[in-house]
Amino acid sequence: MEDETPRSRPARVAAETALVRVVHHYGSRPEFVLMGGLMPEYLCAGSGVQHAGTTDVDVQVDLEIAGGAVNVKKLEQALRNAEFEPDAERVWRWSFGGAAIPTVVKFELLADDEEVRSGEILQFKECDTLGAVNLRGTGFAPRDVVTRRLTARVGDLKRTVEISVTGLAGFLMAKSAAARERRKPKDWYDIAFVLLHNDAGGPEEAAKAILARFPGELVGGTRTALDDLAANFMDTGSQGSQAYADQMRVDYPDLDLAATIADAVVAVKTFHRLLSER
């Protein structure tokens, strides 16, 4: 597993600004759907607890791919115009920043093609250096979409753009699948944070959102991912519980840590139980 870049509020602002730059250069609302590290704050906007932030912009590109050569070429050009550069070895990751910029923002493209093995790379033949990594379960994100307006400075002017973002159900389904595949602490932290602090009202309402949006789909690999999530929050010493606690300790050093971990364990267990009853 790669080392995680420390999360911070300035890093999050940099990531959101970079996303606005890309969409501005795209010229219209893109077909891709935002599903990654920026989403918890959008889904928990009313919470008094602040998400740690992110340096990643994770987008699901199934709809972009379905749009054909024009769309993916347009996205590649937008990334270049926004001063992103492709990773030399991973065509699905582009970066903005470097020695002269404190925060390096990563723009990562994810797909969910059932005919391609999870983890394989989709190289877009129509593009010079653009592709996506196939990650099973991310396809839930573009099936639960809302439109969001974002504003940031691009050059000397403030720009407002429209972007498709995944909803609560799409986020949790996609993130649960990603957590099982990637085993990254940041995924477990994000899931627990959203379950506890979402604007819908907590883990019970999150489960209801999934049952309403994706009825009959909690089987097979999806069921395995949800069971794996529960196993990683089985008790206060589990990997997921500790990942949540570690980040909260950094962001809120005065919190009652024992109570904080216990809250995460209860939230995931409640969420999993409600989904398991159907």
Put the structure in a nutshell.
The chain is an alpha/beta fold and 278 residues long. Helix content is 45%, strand content 19%.
Low-confidence stretches: none
N-to-C order of helices and strands: HEHEHHEEEEEEEHHHHHH
Mean pLDDT: 92
Radius of gyration over C-alpha positions, nearest whole angstrom: 18 Å
Biggest β-sheet strands, sense, barrel: 9 strands, mixed
Could you estimate the helical fraction of the residues in percent? Answer: 40-55%
Strand-pairing-aware structural class: alpha/beta
Gap between N and C termini: 34 Å
The proportion of residues in beta strands is 15-25%
Using the alpha-carbon principal axes, give the shape.
globular
User: What is the number of beta strands?
Assistant: 9
Total of DSSP H or I helical runs spanning 4+ residues: 10
Task: Give the key terms.
globular; 9-stranded mixed sheet; alpha/beta; 278 residues; 10 helices
Topology overview:
Blueprint: H1 9-26, E1 33-34, H2 39-43, E2 56-60, H3 62-66, H4 69-81, E3 85-86, E4 93-98, E5 101-111, E6 121-123, E7 131-134, E8 145-154, E9 157-166, H5 168-182, H6 185-197, H7 203-213, H8 220-231, H9 239-251, H10 257-276
Parallel strand pairs: 1-9, 2-5, 5-7
Antiparallel strand pairs: 1-2, 3-4, 4-5, 6-7, 8-9
Helix pairs in contact: 1-4, 5-6, 5-7, 5-8, 6-9, 6-10, 7-10, 9-10
